[in-house]
Amino acid sequence: LSCASKAPRVLTGFLASTANPSQSSSFADARHRRRNRIRSAPDVGGWHSMDVSVFVLLEKLFRSSLLHVGCKRWQLYCSSSVFSDTSSEVSPERMWEDLKPTISYLSPKELELVHNALRLAFYAHDGQKRRSGEPFIIHPVEVARILGELELDWESIAAGLLHDTVEDTNVTFERIEEEFGPTVRRIVEGETKVSKLGKLKYKNENDSVQDVKADDLRQMFLSMTEEVRVIIVKLADRLHNMRTLCHMPPHKQSSIAMETLQVFAPLAKLLGMYQIKSELENLSFMYTNPEDYAKVKRRVADLYNEHEKELVEADKILMKRIENDQFLDLMTLKTEIRAVCKEPYSIYKSVLKSNSSISEVNQIAQLRIIIKPKPSVGVGPLCSPQQICYHVLGLVHDIWTPVPRAMKDYIATPKPNGYQSLHTTVIPFLYESMFRLEVQIRTEEMNLIAERGIAAHYSGRVFVTGLVGHAEANGRSSRGKAVCLNNANIALRIGWLNAIREWQEEFVGNMSSREFVDTITRDLLGSRVFVFTPRGE
């Protein structure tokens, strides 16, 4: 296998087509401005977006079995560290200059605290190397960058920089608390307990490798019930390790990738962190089943080659209809359309579920409509953000024939992790081809929560510790963004964490670590059954 760290991030290629804000009362002028600025959307949340011209390159991208292409545009998003070729030039100043743009949303005081954490981590890890041969400090900095792309608070980013210091250096928890406060210490302590436990237990010859790993996972599950950011930092840590997994021996690659699929990707999904979940799944898929991974990529490339014109044309038709809709012009600041490719691992799971073959896959394209309502929207029942989404759904069905029983309303019935969106599948060119296209409709806030999950909660300066959640008095982040998660959202996300703690207390002494972990992975991270009353509750 080629090194995953030299490949673009395995999330998705986006075709970004955006309609920009309109402030004029003149509908015609607003529409003209939208057309002139339709392709000027910035990158979203640290993960890459692409315009129509770059979308053509996706065919070459998907023909590669490892997502490794020579396109300079894609090299901008290479997941390998920027220091890998010049490790001798690594310095605290250079590392800071690389990290700072990613966390520019923090206040000057918070930036200084993170800078101090970087200095401490740099000198603590001085002289240490990773298996790849590059300086060890690159790993915690890359973890901090991942957390910064999710716009997490400064405590999480500082903890990401320091998460290996107590385990591998002379830095103590007391020093971390003295310099950065009890919250950073709590996160680092949770990370360290998880990492050190396996090394201590492994010295006991009576323990099997499986028992040692079960102890690790049990400690991790219990740690995150006290501080959710323990698992968020752990997911960022695992993501960077997966990006650089090529430096590990083949047997380690397989076992680490399988553990990622079975534990960490489902945890990311449960937390609603779909950006992290998708990349973890796709990288794991690439290492655990390279043959089927390559087949899926080739099939996706063939389908894009076959339906590229239809997708681009559908994008144009839909955007024109949105531009000409007076209700949307009155109610929204911006409506953005992105063409999204389904994830390779998601496609593979669908194949397994339907007992079909990869060659039978015929639907991989999605158009994602993201709506930004005006601030005044929401004062009445007929102009709420949800109502705007349903209005756009009506436009889509008015343009194209919907596939029967393919409509999913996650706005009225959100997923357990808080995900909200409208999904429908249409046939854009019924009399010309049977090209099926999935359309997803959501607001900007729904999209933020869909991509970042509970991480969006922390970027809004809302904190959860065990059963208690509270927000800053002003209810706004350091960038002036309103806190996007209310108490109901918080309870929805942490209820399963409390269940873990209750299981531990109930079965303490009666359940081995392996049984405890099996219970969680089977009952919590596995499939679920939902029961509704006749009233829809």
UniProtKB/TrEMBL annotation:
<comment type="similarity">
    <text>Belongs to the RelA/SpoT family.</text>
</comment>
<dbReference type="Pfam" id="PF04607">
    <property type="entry name" value="RelA_SpoT"/>
</dbReference>
<dbReference type="InterPro" id="IPR043519">
    <property type="entry name" value="NT_sf"/>
</dbReference>
<dbReference type="InterPro" id="IPR003607">
    <property type="entry name" value="HD/PDEase_dom"/>
</dbReference>
<feature type="domain" description="HD">
    <location>
        <begin position="136"/>
        <end position="242"/>
    </location>
</feature>
<dbReference type="GO" id="GO:0015969">
    <property type="term" value="P:guanosine tetraphosphate metabolic process"/>
</dbReference>
<keyword id="KW-0342">GTP-binding</keyword>
<keyword id="KW-0346">Stress response</keyword>
<dbReference type="GO" id="GO:0005525">
    <property type="term" value="F:GTP binding"/>
</dbReference>
<protein>
    <recommendedName>
        <fullName>GTP diphosphokinase</fullName>
        <ecNumber>2.7.6.5</ecNumber>
    </recommendedName>
</protein>
<dbReference type="InterPro" id="IPR006674">
    <property type="entry name" value="HD_domain"/>
</dbReference>
<dbReference type="GO" id="GO:0008728">
    <property type="term" value="F:GTP diphosphokinase activity"/>
</dbReference>
<keyword id="KW-0547">Nucleotide-binding</keyword>
<dbReference type="InterPro" id="IPR007685">
    <property type="entry name" value="RelA_SpoT"/>
</dbReference>
<dbReference type="Pfam" id="PF13328">
    <property type="entry name" value="HD_4"/>
</dbReference>
